[in-house]
Amino acid sequence: MAPLSLNTARPIPFALPEGKTALVVIDMQKDFLLKGGYGYLQCPSEEVFEQVSSVIEPTARAIAAARKLGLHVIHTREGHVPDLSDCPPTKRMRQRSTNPERHQLIIGTEGPMGRLLVRGSDGHDIVDELKPLKDEPVLDKPGKGSFYNTDFHQMLVSRGITHILLAGVTTECCVATTFREANDHGFETCVLTDCTNGFDIPIVDATMDLFCAYDGLLGYNCTSQPLLDLAATIPIAPTSPMQTDSLDLSISFLRSAYRTGKLSPTTVLDTVYSKIKACDRSEEIFKKLFDKDIALNSLPAPAVEANFADLPYFYGIPFTVSENFDVMQSKLVQGLIKSGAVLIGVTKNEAVGAGLVASCTVGSSYSAEYAAGGYCYGSALAIALGLGSFALGSDTDGSSRVPAALQTGVVGYNVTKGLLKSDHVGKFCPSLDTVAVFASCVRDARSIFSEMRGSDITSPYSVPDRDIPIKSVDFRGPKVGGFRFAVPADLSNCSMEYVTAFNNFVELVTSMGGTLVDIDWSSYSAASKIVVPMIESERVAFSAATTDCPAVASVIENSKILANSNSAMKVFQDGATLRSLKTEFYLEFEGTAGIDVILTPTVPYRPLRKDYHLEPVKINQDLGTFTRLTNVFDMCAISIDVAPGSSFSAMFSAPMGMDGRMLDIAELFA
Question: If you compute the radius of gyration of the chain from its CA atoms, what whole number of angstroms results?
Fold first, then answer.
């Protein structure tokens, strides 16, 4: 599709980059738009109120156009928790103190549609004409602005959004506040002037002018007409069934095919289960395969109504999980199922916490001569062989990224620890383990993160949104706006083939907007020397791994030796040292001279299965050369193939919570 823009926007045309633009609909709630709601009860006249509610119809047209154009659509609702603990007394009481006659009913008071501006009340909900689709996020906010005390910034950057269209009420209050906040966060923002209004006409008019004043100091404004005109040029997609001989299982493809009626979950699962049956490696991969009919029956009930346009986000998307997930109890797994994803099976873990490569009884999808990887090899193989759209695993020091790197065509995404729910997932290093995502492309892996991201207040390892650092967005994207990266000073563990492949990839990254920066790797190197006994101490403490395989037994024994040589006092000393080294290393990412990501090989070489039995301890240690510190330093990382069918995998890594920026960069290459 050719680049889109609103050509009549002021002060200049407003771009709508594909996949990067969202229509954000502000607070189109019954409490603000219907008689008996909070806004009506505070409004000075019926005429003014009708003016505010008149934006429902044009906003509905703008939403329909945005959906047709494939823009993200996000809704917000202003309101408070029932005990009003998130509502400052100033907000609740100031107007009544100033004009008690007009403002007799205030926030929290019982009104005709329930308690005013309180979550869960009928008045708090969005008006029927603008109901969100099942795959459209709804942000509940306690303030006027959408960014205050919410995860709105993370909601946007996790999806790669850089451009925002704003609609909703009221112009002078919540729309204007969100508009100004978005500008401060670096987003390009345009207000659709016929899709917003307010309770004071002179102030509304002045605010409309402010949106594009001073040559775009704060942003843009435009009517919705050019958006509607663009949508009118999009032809209606044909609904004839498509061929399934070589079915694309990517999430983006299946979502589009389901929503245009070209495919059904039954057809997709018939294809996937046929592939599993025909695959001579299914027994190596699956611990348990669920009955196809049972899997289909797990789809959310509303989805069977065949309203193709309104489906849960992951409707009909087949996925697998590694066997350390309790699929019935895991909030993440159940959340995916609730969102329409279809769990088809549980994949095998090769050994119980015994290393990055375990018994090597299973060969890679690249070649049976090479190892498939260790702990979460089953999930990696399932994606490599096209037996699902995505898979979940867990990662301590590379136990998902390494198996992903040892296949072909598999992305292994190590999410920042604590940003995805990890309850009821078997962990052998609880302080380090994080959920990992296997997919065929970065975009698919990203969608799992963006849709399922969220803190879990019941988990001691969850990261609250307020702890995630916020960095301003570069609306130009990494290819045009550029990014800064560093590469390791020491590649001595790498094979010559991998050194050459890595250097070639560095040249490609540079050609795609990257600037190579020299940094001080001393803190990283120092941490690498002391971290192994720390990890093994925790692994031995929580793992009861046993095996009949001599090679695996030697790895387990080595872990015990390292753990037992680590006194309690030294564990605390090394822990303090690692925290200091992490702080020192993070300084390399700070300021205008700081880097965005580090780029490394995922593994230093691809081990042959026959070699593993000769040097299992060394190979395990070698394979963690670049992956080991990720979770120790609270970083995120993603392993990608540098080219289709390539035997070499590279890895981007970034500081805690910078997943969005890292994924923006990685998407340029996979």
Answer: 26
Active-site pick, 43, 87, 173, 174: 174
- Digit-coded pLDDT (tens) for 593-644: 799 999 999 999 998 888 877 887 888 889 999 999 999 999 999 999 987 7
Q: Among residues 453, 468, 470, 488, which one has the least CA distance to residue 635?
A: 468
Say whether 27 is catalytic: yes
Question: pLDDT by residue (tens digit) across 280-308?
Answer: 999 999 999 999 988 888 886 544 444 56
pLDDT, tens digit, 9 for 90 and up, residues 507-544: 999 999 999 999 999 999 999 888 877 777 767 666 66
* 262 is known as an active-site residue: no
Q: Alpha-carbon distance 128 to 257, whole Å?
A: 27
Cα–Cα distance for residue pair 10/465, rounded to 1 Å: 35
The DSSP output letter for 519 is -
288 is catalytic: no
What string of DSSP letters covers 140-171? Answer: EESSSSSSTTSSHHHHHHHTT--EEEEEEE-I
Contact 639, 650 (CB under 8 A): yes
The owner of tokens 């299982």 is: 249
Q: Tell me the percentage of the chain whose pLDDT exceeds 70.
A: 91
Catalytic-role residue among 68, 141, 331, 421: 141
**Domains, the chain, with CATH or none:** 4-232 (3.40.50.850), 251-465 (3.90.1300.10), 472-666 (3.90.1300.10)
Cα–Cα distance measured from residue 294 to residue 524, given in angstroms and rounded to the nearest whole number: 48
Q: State the amino acid at position 570 in one-letter form.
A: K
